[in-house]
Amino acid sequence: MSELSRHLKKKTLGPLMAQAEACLLGPQEGVLLVDETGREMARAGLAVPQAGYAVLPLVIDGRKRGELRGVQSEAGAGRLKFLWRALQALIDSEHARRAVSQETLGQYHELALLQRAAIALNEKLHPQRVAEALLELVRETQSPETAGGCYLLAGDAPVLAASFGGFPAAEALSLEVPLVRAVLAARRPEIVNHLAGDARWQGAPPCEHLLLAPVSASEAAEALVILTRPRGAPEFQASDLKGAATLASMAAGALRNARLFEEMFEIKNYTEGVLKSLSNGVIALDRSGVVTKVNPAAARILGLQEAEILDRPLADVLHSDNRWLLDAVSTVRETRRADAHPERELRLPDRRPVNLNLLLEPLCDIDEQPMGVLLVLEDLTRERRLRNTMSRFMTDQVVDQLLAGDDSFLGGKEQEVSILFSDIRRFTSLSEHLSPVDAVGQLNEYFAGMVDIIFEHHGTLDKFIGDGIMALFGAPFVSSGDADNAVAAAVAMMEHLQTFNRSRAKQGLTPFNIGVGVNTGPVIVGNIGSPKRMDFTVIGDHVNLAARLESANKFYGSKILFSEHTRDALRRSHAIRELDKVRVMGRQQPVRIFEVLDHYTSADFPQMGHILRCFGEGVEAFRERRFSEAAKAFGEVVRIKPDDKPAVIYLQRCLEYGEREPPTNWDAVVDLASK
């Protein structure tokens, strides 16, 4: 549609031309309306010839957008001009209406942007998120040629928090450039539309047009928005500067709030982390003796849940036999002096005694006015000593169960346990190039993350075996989810290994590669060893099978293997495939083994669903001696994922059995002779 067509609508133009033909034009007169391309829009009266007609231009915003052509009698010139003026008046009226509408729409968009900015910026509680939201809002107001970045300035060097439009993030921003330094010092935005001609820019200019807008949340700028446009792009206008400055001003308050929230959150997390990590109990009381804070250690010492202690007067929490402690609290509150009570006996609510050291400290506000008392309890009982020892191998929940129950099972009993073995591939050769200190340091860093994962999935650390780990799920206490927890822990270990290896790569270190084996079955659980040195562990055939499965990963090129016994005990679904039936070293009974694939991404394992179907069909055909059909299925797997070693192994078997049939008593079981 031409510009003239947009201003002269058919519903207006049609009646006007009809009226002109009926009332305005003489019998020998005619008019033709065409747009700037010469396309006919309307006509009235006689047909207008190809030449020799009168022409009256129709103008929109100072530019010719069409013309009125006329065949007229000698007396009809005035009538043609009258029609032309009427048409031009309609055009001018529509253009003015559009201009007003455009201005109104622009104001609406500006108000809408400001509203969204207020919401988007103030809901962010982290400087990085504030910077990202700010730059996204700025981007919406800019032309497509604009590129931009937002730098956070806190610290020793600026950090590029967000960018768009191919902004050169690799180019470090120097705060020492006089132009940048001047803008930051003045805390006022500035436009430089010909950067090469500005003496304040040192070195080759990265762009032709530059806009700088500082974000000042305090007495100094804390962020800087930079917008660039290349040579040939439109220059930055005052409206661009106004928009960027307005958004930067709004972001300043959000950035200030984000900084304060970050500081408060860090303090809170630090305090909470310290309290949770303390083995000593901590209880905070307000002026009236009500408990306002209690850490997990204090709750354990008192034998109560945190919810049973918080927001209650200490006198109601403690047994009535503990009057000495309440008197000590009153003394500290009145004298505002610390007090210590070593090796005192405290009666728990169930009247059980607990031996502890007690330290009381007065709490005062910023004006040194009393606001409460802090109690620090050091448990001296056998349970505390046992907890310190066992917590290195078990989660706090398992230790709690152990301390709350009968420990006679430590003498030994049979129960179903899921056993996990993991091992670092070729760590011995890796360590040959390291000093003993470096080798131990790297191994300890790896173990720290893996043990945390075992604990997070309710497992127990049995032992470290060189660079390997043995973990138990279901010992000392059995639960219905032990097999699921063991498999989930194996998957989490693989996922953590990717993050761990990325960190090693940044340090120039060789990545670790591990294998994990899981098996489930009845084993003997208990303290095993000599009278002088005993370890809580498990023994039995199923322990050996778990270790063999970990080693079998080397043969199959897999990461995680588990047995059919574990598969039968699972309650949650996982991405798995049955690999083989194997007979491991030291065990006559064959076992079906499965590979877990949950830790793979779509990029690492493309078309997983299709591959699993083809692989399953191939295994079924292979076991039924349909080797040609099995080879096609495994070939499809290799076509999609050439590095799939299990499929390659099966292809080799199919080719061998296709040439030489296996004996009639063939059971498709593979003997894995190595450990």
CATH fold call of the largest domain: Alpha-Beta Plaits
Radius of gyration from the CA trace?
40 Å
Secondary-structure-derived class: alpha+beta
What is the approximate shape? extended
Beta strand count: 23
Taking pLDDT < 50 over at least 5 consecutive residues as the criterion, the unreliable ranges are none
Number of helices: 20
How much of the residues is beta strand, in percent?
25-35%
Indicate the mean pLDDT: 83
So, CATH architecture of the largest domain? 2-Layer Sandwich
Assigned CATH class of the largest domain: Alpha Beta
**Residues in helices, as a percent range:** 40-55%
Number of domains: 5
Distance between the termini: 79 Å
CATH homologous group name of the largest domain: Nucleotide cyclase, GGDEF domain
Annotate the secondary structure layout.
Layout: H1 3-7, H2 10-24, E1 30-35, E2 40-45, E3 54-60, E4 63-71, H3 77-122, H4 127-140, E5 147-152, E6 159-164, H5 178-186, E7 190-192, E8 209-216, E9 221-229, H6 238-277, E10 281-285, E11 291-294, H7 296-302, H8 306-309, H9 314-317, H10 323-335, E12 339-347, E13 353-364, E14 370-379, H11 382-390, H12 396-404, E15 413-424, H13 427-431, H14 436-456, E16 460-465, E17 468-473, H15 482-506, E18 514-529, E19 534-539, H16 541-556, E20 560-563, H17 564-569, E21 576-584, E22 591-596, H18 608-623, H19 627-640, H20 645-659, E23 669-672
Parallel strand pairs: 18-20, 21-23
Antiparallel strand pairs: 1-2, 1-4, 3-4, 5-6, 5-9, 7-8, 8-9, 10-11, 10-14, 12-13, 13-14, 15-17, 15-18, 16-17, 18-19, 20-22, 21-22
Helix pairs in contact: 3-4, 3-6, 4-6, 11-12, 14-15, 18-19, 19-20
